[in-house]
Automatic annotation (TrEMBL):
It is found in: Cell envelope. One of its GO terms (cellular component) is cell envelope. This is Probable sugar-binding periplasmic protein. The keyword Signal applies. PROSITE patterns: PROKAR_LIPOPROTEIN. It comes from Lentibacillus populi. Part of a binding-protein-dependent transport system for a sugar. Residues 1-18 form the signal peptide. Keywords: Signal, Transport. It comes from the Bacteria. Belongs to the bacterial solute-binding protein 1 family. PANTHER family: ARABINOSE-BINDING PROTEIN-RELATED, BINDING PROTEIN COMPONENT OF ABC SUGAR TRANSPORTER-RELATED.
Amino acid sequence: MKKAYGFILFLALALVLAACSSDSSGKSDGDSESKSGDSDSAGGKVEIFSWWTGAGEEDGLLALIDLFKEKHPDIEIENAAVAGGAGTNAKAVLATRMQGDDPPSTFQVHGGAELNEGWVAAGKMEPLDDFYEENELMDKFPEELIDLVSKDGKIYSVPVNIHRGNVLFYNMKVFEENGIEVPTTFDEFLAAADKLQAAGITPLALGDKEGWPATQVFENILLGVLGPDDYKKLFAGEIGFDDKRVKEAVDKFDKILDYANEDHASRNWQDSAQLVANGEAAMINMGDWAKGYFNNDLDLETNKDFGYFAFPETDGDFMVITDTFGLPKGVENPDDVKEFLKVLGSVEGQDAFNPLKGSIPARVDADKSKYDEYGKDAMEDFNNSRLVPSLAHGSAASEGFLTKVNQAVNIFVTQRDADNFTQALQNAASEL
Ligand code: GAL
């Protein structure tokens, strides 16, 4: 073991020396027109921190990085992604680094509370108003998104995408073979689930090894029961968790869980999506990163192998999840980081990233022809729906509240004690 550490230390030293002796692109001296006079580029490295690693997650990011490298061969990129859906592990690593004043050059952060009540409130982010002005970005994003990345009148990050959280993806062959119609109400969903179960098919795939996918199902049920206005009021603390509709949502959640695969606690989101892909399960509620996973990793075709519909009783609503990147205070080469943000915020960058990621572009002027039918439908829905922020993905409420809800959901999924769960939600509300 000691030998291994010695080797790593040696390697690190060798890399540092190599980095010092050449420019940051690794180019030979001869072909570099670059930047020796540009002091802001002296560090020359942009470290991008996210949780987009592996299947279903990283394709979009890699495309964006390639595009950036084409445009800026002189700036080195370090892809510092930490695996784990919804940032399960990455957020903890990030917190340690931020507390230790060792921020990455830029990091993935959800618009809404995660950015504003988290890093901005802690004084850790640079405002980007000038950057928006200089790059004429102010009118390039929907106002609602600008609001999600703003606090006290200042803008703090650049959205790369919009994911939708209230979607059910389904195996089209399984639906057809079992004579299932797309359910729109909760009762229709239960009827379809009964029929599928009787045919020996798991109605709903769930993979809550990491907790959050179950919270996501629950938030969609809350949205269906409360409607978009009261859903927002719930997380704004204006409606209490003792409201009888919360109990109704808990009961519905309880019912739905009866239709999930038994091994849900040992699967992550990709593992559970595979159950739908191979026909063992019929449906899955997952953000539309699952669409990217189906297309790119599992080679499934949209509207041929898998279809999609809004979570029952949430048609006309759009659960917004937006991944954004900002500029932490204290990074060495802010101008290089801004170059990355510029590419990420450009039409070209968004159209390289989003068709692979399964999301739609955050920009209003992206090239629609680059997106398949799902993408086009999602863009139209976004424009015509009532938008609500996702709790499971950090936008609706503080990280402290979300952590408690995730814990409560986790206990409920195993114990199925509705009173206990409702009480735990009421207790968590003190974090709002
Ligand atoms: C979300 C994130 C998505 C996707 C998903 C699964 O929180 O916004 O981009 O990565 O987690 O990890």
